[in-house]
């Protein structure tokens, strides 16, 4: 499909904040229509108060995208978003796969009540199917030794890089692993929430072991929801609705 141009999106709210750690080793991705980058895309949500926010998501099926819960739900902005769209492989103004509107989006009730990082994940159900060329991430409940023994990468749409809505990635080892969360000093910033924590430089065997959320309270590490059997089960239940 030929790329199309899009105007810059007016964004008045950046959803939560990750943190870049020195030295900031993020690199721009320019081949966003190639695997694995094409599986990641820009999520834009409009909230009840009219605020528009941008974050990152990744495809796990032809009509299913995983992102952060706070990408589509924010109590301070009126609650659940009223409109959500996904642009896989977006590169600044270029849209190699066009825009897909979400028909519905799911967030855990407990996240709405308690706003815990461990519950900060969401599923978007698109109104139309994405082409096979977009690719798919496989949600993978990796064991502790696998998580600690490998490097992982995070690609998304940071608001502190130019041009606007360009994709950037960085990689590194995890600093800590627990039952529900992954911690790392892989640089991110606002706009990258919802990105996959995925195998470093994996092209065909694309496994997502975490869902990037935010920086921790003392700003010493970034956090992701760990993909566990329970997280996978919940997402499968949402897909079946």
Q: What does this entry look like structurally?
A:
Pfam families: Trypsin_2. With 241 residues, the chain is mainly β. The protein has two domains: 35-136 and 236-240, Thrombin, subunit H, CATH 2.40.10.10; 138-228, Trypsin-like serine proteases (Thrombin, subunit H), CATH 2.40.10.10. The protein has helices spanning 109-114, 144-148, 229-240; strands at 4-5, 13-14, 27-29, 40-46, 52-61, 64-67, 73-74, 79-80, 83-88, 94-95, 100-107, 122-126, 138-139, 151-156, 167-177, 181-184, 196-199, 207-215, 222-226. The chain has a six-stranded antiparallel beta barrel. The longest helix is centred in the C-terminal third of the chain and has 12 residues, at 229-240. The two termini are 31 Å apart.
Write out key terms for the chains shown.
241 residues; mainly beta; 6-stranded antiparallel β-barrel; 3 helices; 19 strands; 39% strand
The CATH homologous superfamily of the largest domain is termed Trypsin-like serine proteases
Query: What is the average per-residue confidence, as pLDDT, rounded to a whole number?
Result: 91
Largest sheet: number of strands, sense, barrel closure: 6 strands, antiparallel, barrel
Q: Poorly predicted ranges (pLDDT <50, ≥5 residues)?
A: 1-15
Got a strand count? 19
The first-to-last residue Cα distance is 31 Å
Total tally of structural domains: 2
CATH class of the largest domain: Mainly Beta
How many helices? The count is: 3
Strands of the widest sheet, in order across it, are: 4-5-6-12-11-9
- Helix fraction? under 10%
CATH topology of the largest domain: Thrombin, subunit H
Give the topology string: H per helix, E per strand. EEEEEEEEEEEHEEHEEEEEEH
CATH architecture of the largest domain: Beta Barrel
